[in-house]
C-alpha cells in the first residue's frame, strides 16, 4: 500500500460513496490510503453500508463528518472547501469534486443508478452530480449476482452513460463461493484512481521494460544474483501503463506481483532475459532497461549439486560474460534510426555523475538514469540523476512510484 503522498492525488477532492456489502471493510482501508496520498475524502453512506461499517469509523478515517441521509441538515462542504448550510447536501457534496467513487458498489445500487432512481442521499447525489465530475464504480458482489444478465446489462449501460466501472476481483468470496465479483483490493482501486487522473502523455506507445535481478546458476541449488528488488522497474511499468502505454515487462525473480494490465514475462538468467527482450523488442517504441543484469555467469553450470569431498579443497568457478542486453538493443537498426527510444539505468556506488555520463556514451543511449545502488536496492524510495545529450537533471529522493511518474513525464517530453 502506498504510504507516501502522491502528486496526482494531492489536493483532489474525492466523494467516497459506500453501499451495502461486506467489501465495505476494504473501503475503510481505501479511505485511509486516499487521505495518506493527500486527497480530501468526503464519505457518503447508504443505510445498508452503515450495517457493515459505522459512520464513526469512516469519520475518524476521513477526518470529516459522514453523510448518510438526505434529511441531514448539517452544513455540506463542497470541493472548494465552502461549508454550505442550505440543507441540500445532495447538491453541494459533488460541486467542485474531482470524482465520485462508489466503493463498494452493490448490484442493487448499480441497478438503481441505471434507472436514475433517487430515494436516498447517495443515489440522489449521483443523479444531481455535474456531468463533468466522473463517476467511478468498484462493483462488489457474489459471483452469481455479478454474472447475472441483469448486472452485466446494467454494467454495460452504466458505461454507456459515462460511468467508469472498475474490474472486479476473482477468488474466494465472503459467502464461501469462489469466482468473479469481489471488490478489488484498496491498493488496486487507489492505483486505478491514480491511472484515471494521469494524463495520457504516452497514448498509443508500446514499451518494453526489463526489471529485477538475474540469477546465474552454479549448480541446481546454488547461483549468483544481486540485491535488486525490481521495485523501480515495476513502478516504471505501472507509470507507463497509467500514461496510456501498452507495457511488456521482462522480470527477473522478484517478490512483486505482476502489475494489473501489464504483460509480464518472468525470466531467471541474463540469457533468458536477452531472449525475451529479443522476442518482443520489434513491437516496442520505447525500451527501458532497469534490470540489474549479471555481467558474468558461471561458464559451466554443474548439472548436479557440487558436493564437498571432505578434502577442504574449494571449487574453482570460471565465468563467461553475459551479452549486454541494453547495448545490443541500442545498436539495433530501429534504435539507431530513432524509431525505438532506449533508456538505460546505471547502478553505481560512487561518482554517480561521471559514471552515468560515461555509461550513456558507452551504451549509446539518448537517456541514462543513474542511481546509487546501495542507497536504494530493496527500498521504497530512490533519487535519480537523468543524463542526456544536453546535460543532467536531478530527481530528488522520493517514493519509487513518484519518481517513476516523473521519469515518464521526462520520457514523454523527449519523444513527443
Ligand atoms: N545491462 C544490460 N545487460 C547487461 C548488463 C547491463 O541490459 N548484461 C543494462 C542494465 O539494465 C542497465 C545498464 O545496462 O540499464 C547499466 O547496467 P549497470 O549494471 O549499471 O552497468 P554495467 O553495464 O554492468 O557496467 P559496470 O558493471 O561497469 O558498472
Detail the topology: elements first, then pairings.
Blueprint: E1 13-18, H1 24-36, E2 40-45, H2 47-50, H3 55-62, E3 76-77, E4 83-84, H4 89-92, E5 99-105, H5 107-114, H6 121-127, E6 135-139, H7 143-147, H8 149-160, E7 164-165, E8 169-172, E9 178-182, H9 186-197, E10 206-211, E11 216-219, E12 222-224, H10 231-242, E13 246-251, E14 263-266, H11 270-280, E15 286-289, E16 296-298, E17 319-321, H12 325-330, H13 333-337, E18 341-348, H14 352-363, E19 367-372, E20 381-388, E21 391-399, H15 400-415
Parallel strand pairs: 1-2, 1-5, 5-6, 6-7, 10-13, 10-15, 13-14, 15-18, 18-19
Antiparallel strand pairs: 3-4, 8-9, 11-12, 16-17, 19-20, 20-21
Helix pairs in contact: 1-3, 1-9, 5-8, 10-15
The site of cytidine-5'-triphosphate has 15 residues, from α12 and β18.
TL;DR of this structure?
The chain is α/β, with parallel strands linked by helices and 416 residues long. It has helices at 24-36, 47-50, 55-62, 89-92, 107-114, 121-127, 143-147, 149-160, 186-197, 231-242, 270-280, 325-330, 333-337, 352-363, 400-415; strands at residues 13-18, 40-45, 76-77, 83-84, 99-105, 135-139, 164-165, 169-172, 178-182, 206-211, 216-219, 222-224, 246-251, 263-266, 286-289, 296-298, 319-321, 341-348, 367-372, 381-388, 391-399. It folds into two domains: 3-197, Rossmann fold; 206-303 and 313-415, CoaB-like (Rossmann fold).
What does this structure look like?
The structure is a single chain. This protein has 416 residues and is an alpha/beta fold. The protein has two domains: 3-197, Rossmann fold (3-Layer(aba) Sandwich); 206-303 and 313-415, Rossmann fold. 32% of the residues lie in helices and 25% in strands. It is built from 15 helices and 21 strands. An eight-stranded mixed sheet has the order 14-13-10-15-18-19-20-21, sandwiched between helices. A five-stranded parallel sheet has the order 2-1-5-6-7, with helices on both faces. The chain has a two-stranded antiparallel sheet with strand order 3-4. α1 links the parallel β1 and β2 (40-45). The mean pLDDT is 95. The structure holds cytidine-5'-triphosphate. Cytidine-5'-triphosphate binds at residues 210, 270, 289, 291, 293, 295, 322, 324-326, 344-347, 359.
